[in-house]
Amino acid sequence: MGRRTVVTVLLAGGALIGAVVPALGDYWTQYQSRPDAPYPEDQGWERITAYGGALRSIDDLGNLVLDSRGSGGIVDSYTIHAPGTIHADAEHPFVVEWREKVDYTTGTTESGVGIFSDDEWGAGFWIMPDRIYSINEYPANALFEPGWHVFRMTTDDMRSYVLSIDGTPALQGAFIHTYWASDVNWGDGGQGGTSLSHWAYFGFGIVPEPISAVTMFSGLVLVLRMSRRGWVGLSYTGRVL
Question: What is the pTM of this model?
Fold first, then answer.
């Protein structure tokens, strides 16, 4: 705790570059670009910017592109404040999942995700082209090949988590107590560096299934139903992690 940061929470899935959306249940809060509501704020997310925000676009495959290479001061992140929905237990784990490709970064605090529980415990991640850092356990990180990846964080107590990449457990760590509650955020949340990132989709929610195997750091594949509501994007700013 202590340094000011903006972090981003993302959900992603699917095997093709932005072409396949995971089947997510109605208990998920989600974002994915669609013609009538292309950007996160069009779907109910709050947008937080600095220095005018990133250059944004929707590519030909429907992915959100955030380009902050113009200035190290740029912030462009998305948040939802959702009291009473960010908690978990052994029978009802909390999951955040997103699909992202980071093409370019300078510095480590650029493309990110943050989760803040109803009782003020937080965890977060910074994503680079070939690795993902845990903010709480920095410099702990997991490596991957550059390109599109599905990231999934699962917790059954909002005190510890397992992060998988493309279905394989890659990091485990702890939440820390913060002064923020009931927020999930994602996007270009840091200052001091620049980045170019692509977001296929993002989501979070409570999954009504036991996850003891996940919290024991084994891989668990959850099959979820497609939501009728579409995706929603999240962002958050605060003194945390």
Answer: 0.77
